[in-house]
Write a structure and sequence with these properties.
One of its GO terms (biological process) is chromosome segregation. InterPro entries: CB, DNA_brk_join_enz, Integrase-like_cat_sf, Integrase_catalytic, Integrase_recombinase_N, Integrase_SAM-like_N, Recomb_XerD, Tyrosine_recombinase_XerC/XerD. This protein has 293 residues and is mainly alpha-helical. The protein folds into 2 domains: 2-100, DNA polymerase, domain 1 (Orthogonal Bundle); 109-234, Intergrase catalytic core (hpI Integrase, Chain A, Orthogonal Bundle). Helix content is 58%, strand content 4%. The protein has helices spanning 2-13, 19-39, 46-58, 63-82, 109-117, 124-139, 143-146, 177-194, 214-227, 236-249, 254-261, 266-269, 271-287, and strands at 154-155, 160-164, 170-174. The radius of gyration is 22 Å and the shape is globular.
Length: 293
């Protein structure tokens, strides 16, 4: 389908998305195109989308995966509307059942503290891990942003770190005084114990002096979550969810949280209001005399 090639060009040159993001979109689109060709149905009808959803669910795809694929398709249809290839986006005509939406897994403030307390900072690797965990929680950065931070991106005088988000969009995230102190200690350890040979400038390095991978960071989080006896399914993204949820629960403005997270749309940030609503409801059930269980 030649429109997919045009769409790829559009994502790269006009939306400035990263190579990984572009390929993820294209992969989702090709899966759908194969489906409609196999079933000999129109690609831009509501019925085709519903049939596709049914097939994905029958193959036991997670709800989150189905929603991601629908999001890719919706973006593609919006592009075709701009190109005057179709008149309507069939995705927007669908009602997505509320039960599809799963609230993000997040940690309580006590669970975050328990994880921090398990880290032995007497070693170079331990200190590095402590900085990683604290930065994930106190800034809300994505793991893809964290592993690409360079030493030169840290401005301790201003108390900010520059990160590159989706589409290579830059933003500055504030860091608090305690984190600045531990970061300065880490930089000394990094220079003396982690840098091996040529220093490529990345803030976080493995034992061989190389930039950390996403999987490496995932394993770090899993390791300390298990040591802290956290039973939840925790990943680096759980710290991002916790960052936003705790800010909102303590009175932060949703627009500020949107800026800190680097969300392009406020609607993406609004999912955290559902988490906060659940926490408030739980408080009512536990403590209000009329609601108390």
């Amino acid at each position: 389908m030649k429109e997919i090639d045009f769409y790829r060009h559009y994502l790269i040159n006009e939306e400035s998305l990263s190579k990984n993001s572009v390929e993820a979109y294209v992969r989702d689109l090709k899966g759908y195109v194969e489906f409609v060709k196999r079933n000999k149905i129109k690609y831009d009808s509501v019925e085709s989308i519903l049939s596709y959803i049914k097939e994905l669910l029958s193959k036991k795809y997670a709800v989150e995966t189905v929603l991601r694929k629908l999001s890719s398709l919706s973006s593609f249809f919006d592009f075709l509307i701009k190109e005057k290839k179709i008149d309507k986006n069939p995705i927007v005509l669908l009602d997505k059942p509320k039960k599809w939406f799963k609230l993000p897994e997040f940690l309580t403030e006590d669970e975050v503290k328990r994880i921090f307390d398990t880290v032995d900072t007497s070693t170079a690797v331990g200190l590095r891990d402590k900085v990683i965990l604290k930065l994930l929680y106190s800034s809300g950065v994505r793991v893809s942003e964290l592993i690409n931070i360079k030493v030169s991106d840290c401005d301790f005088k201003r108390g900010v770190i520059k990160v590159k988000g989706k589409g290579n969009k830059e933003r500055f995230v504030p860091i608090h005084k305690n984190l600045i102190e531990i970061l300065e200690n880490y930089l000394h350890i990094r220079h003396n114990y982690l840098v091996k040979g040529r220093d490529e400038g990345y803030l976080f390095l493995n034992k061989n002096g190389k930039k950390l991978s996403r999987v490496y960071c995932w394993n770090i989080v899993k390791k300390y979550a298990e040591k802290a006896d956290i039973k939840k399914n925790i990943s680096p993204h759980s710290f991002r969810h916790s960052f936003a949820t705790h800010l909102l629960a303590n009175g932060a403005d949703l627009r500020i949280i949107q800026l800190l997270l680097g969300h392009a749309s406020i609607s993406t940030t609004e999912i955290y209001t559902q988490v906060a609503d659940d926490k408030m409801r739980e408080s009512l059930l536990n403590y209000h005399p009329r609601f108390k269980r």
